[in-house]
Amino acid sequence: MLCLGLSGGLDKVYENRFQIPNSFMHDGAAVLVRDGQVIAAVEEERLNRIKHSNKLPISSVQYCLSAAGVQLSEIDHVAYYATEAYCNAMLENMLASEPDASIPLDAKFLVQQLLAQEFGTELDPSRISFVSHHQAHAVSAFAMSGFEQSLIFAIDGSGDFLSGLVAVGSGTEISQLATFPESNSLGLFYLEVIRYLGYGLFDEYKVMGLAPYGDPVPYRELFEQFYELSANGEYRVHLDRIGPTLLRSIQVRQKGMPFTQQHKDVSASLQEALERIVFHILRHHREATGMTRLCLAGGVAHNCSVNGKLLYSGLFEDIFVQPASHDAGCALGAALIVSGELGRPAPRARLQEVYWGPDLASDHAVEEELKAWAGHLEFERTEEVADRAAEWMAGGAVIGWVQGRSEFGPRALGNRSILADPRPATNKDRINAMVKKREGYRPFAPSVLEEDAREFFDLPGSACEFPFMNFVVRVRDSKRGLLGAITHVDGTARLQTVSRKASPAYWDVINAFKQRTGIPILLNTSFNNNAEPIVDSVADSIATFLTTELDGLVVGPFLVKKRAATLQDWTALAVSLPPYVSLHKVRAYTAQDRQETVCEIRTDHSSRDCARISHELFDMLTRIEGEAVLADLLDTITLDQAQRETLTGELRRLWEQRRVRMRPSQAARVHQN
């Protein structure tokens, strides 16, 4: 029995027909389960390279079908991550705002039509289902927890006109206890506050990392105006009070401005308020149901600081957090719901790993990909890849590490990671500034051999398995000075324990580092820069390696370093525009405060995410039909050597921002072969 779960939007990658608010339709994914067991899962952003993609997960579906060796016609059931009534209401709202839009008002017919266009198969409507958004969150957690019974708390921003639910899971059944309306959304509560800290949607985790630098006391009473706690675990948030109150009380931070202590204190107060509300809800339902275990899902469950507080509180004996708690995880929940309805529920087993994405190509194919970049890369193959990588890191190198199948969810768990020595505090600063190009306060996570975790981290009870970076835990006092790169300002870390059975290649490299240094831990962060999702393919890995200041790259059995590429090497590359990019000429004010015609490259068909480019580069890019070799493009314009270097440098900066694509031309690949 094959069941396919889907999340995300309804547009193709180059379209913006369905202007449904991005606060709902985002984090597109596809998950394929056979008889209740996951065989393939990937987020669309990993494949179309659009962060938090709100597009139809076409590439994800293609991957899942390929992994199973089947056609769409062989799928028994397809499930979408929202109710049909909600989807129809969204379509009606769109039509009301755009009366001339040719949009069908039947969501099931629309999904059927879109899949038929892409895969040439018109599924019978009876094989397409729509499931409750928060029920999908709940099932994605409970079905993977291994618990026979537990309390379930699914909480996020919005979906199906709600923001969450509390339920009890027993066997294969889930009984709903309470739901929370959008007006009481804890996700929207958090989001509304961070707007005044210079952040927006998908930045919530950044404020969670900033909170330990602040003191909640100065703004505690102010935040108590924003929510009320009442009997029976009920609560109310006052979203309408937040803006007016904060505008009167703090200096609003604009994006890019430095953080003041005031901003840090507001972050601390926000985090404290969220924790108080969550504990209020869960204490009541823990007492009312007698449940000693807890499952968490929904976007708010990615707040690993709250999860850590719950862990240490002793309120529950065991807590399972769905590693893909955000909306991509609803694709998993949707698939499991319909699989259960068809008599194939998920087996009752604790989730151990989520390496469900695309695998690396064969060693031969990886080698051919590396050869094509001969002017930019040098590499060697080794049978001692873990030892050599550990040697690099022990010597101070920061490396990209790419092995096996990619992870499902927002965390790099050792198959698509940036790795480094966890000891020097300077590693944190270096990676933030020169590799990730992000705020300097942001912490990095440690990956520790499971058997050594308690020596370095103060773990409550008998718990020793934390494979998904879902909990902030305390670094032991005696180890904080030693682990300067992964210990946050409050003495904590977002922990990943690594099992030899679940992650053998990753365990090997950490163990090899331990043999050299005595430290069974590596700093682990996602392999990407600030402009892109986590890498998935070998080509993604090379692009990120060449556009960051990483010292080395390990892909499968290959050790890779950079060459000093010449201008000729750069101009031999082929250039193309991603399908989500568009070019525009507009009238705008320049730095000299004059209105002139300027050239822009945009990534979302609007002026909200754009970069200004030179007229020469604009004219050159408009000449591209599909893909063109840079040298040929430069030859279409009369340029001297200095101008060729300047335009090439400008194009490389756009590549770093993922506004253009650069790769070896087909001619270069043939030549290398």
Automatic annotation (TrEMBL):
- Residues in domain Carbamoyltransferase C-terminal? 390-562
What CDD domains has UniProt attached to this entry? ASKHA_NBD_NovN-like_N
Q: Which Pfam families match?
A: Carbam_trans_C, Carbam_trans_N
As given in the record, the signal peptide range reads: none
The terms under GO molecular function for this entry are: transferase activity
Cite the entry's keywords alphabetically: Transferase
- Is the keyword tRNA-binding assigned to this protein? no
Mind telling me which InterPro entries this protein's record contains?
Answer: ATPase_NBD, Carbam_trans_C, Carbam_trans_C_sf, Carbtransf_dom, NodU/CmcH_Carbamoyltrnsfr
In what residue span(s) does the Carbamoyltransferase domain sit?
A: 23-336
State the similarity comment. Belongs to the NodU/CmcH family.
Q: What is this protein called?
A: Beta-1,4-N-acetylglucosamine oligosaccharide 3-O-carbamoyltransferase NolO
What organism, scientifically named, is this protein from? Rhizobium loti (Mesorhizobium loti)
